Amino acid sequence: MDSRRCIVIVWLLSVLRIGSNDNSSKQPAWCPRNCKCNGIKLSVFCEDSHFTQIPPDLPTFVRSLRLSKNNLQKISNNTFIEFQNLTSLSLIKNNISLIEKDAFKGLNNLQRLWVGENPLNIKVLEESVFGAVPRL
Description:
Radius of gyration: 16 Å
Largest sheet: 5 strands, mixed
CATH topology: Leucine-rich repeat, LRR (right-handed beta-alpha superhelix)
Structural class: alpha/beta
Helix content: 10-25%
CATH superfamily: Ribonuclease Inhibitor
Shape: globular
Distance between the termini: 29 Å
Number of helices: 2
């Protein structure tokens, strides 16, 4: 099954679940633990969740991801390689001191990236860190 068809199916399931009369859970079934999600916009909000790494159960079809106010310290090479639909990524107010050269590799559709309020030395960051993100 191609990725577009998968995204449409997941989106439809999310909409149907959110719109159902079952109010026991307003979050889509694919929403990672300790996060809030919007099934229509395919957005994930994992703010102030004490994460030290990217949630392992994060679905690869998300379009917007907020990981602000966590305890991420390093963004390793290929961290987001599977997240090709991501257009918006917020990593504000973590404890990130290192972003490796190929950390954002694969984010071909990324349009907005926030990394402020981290102990990053911007002068040390290589241009190639952002070179893998053509729309940024």
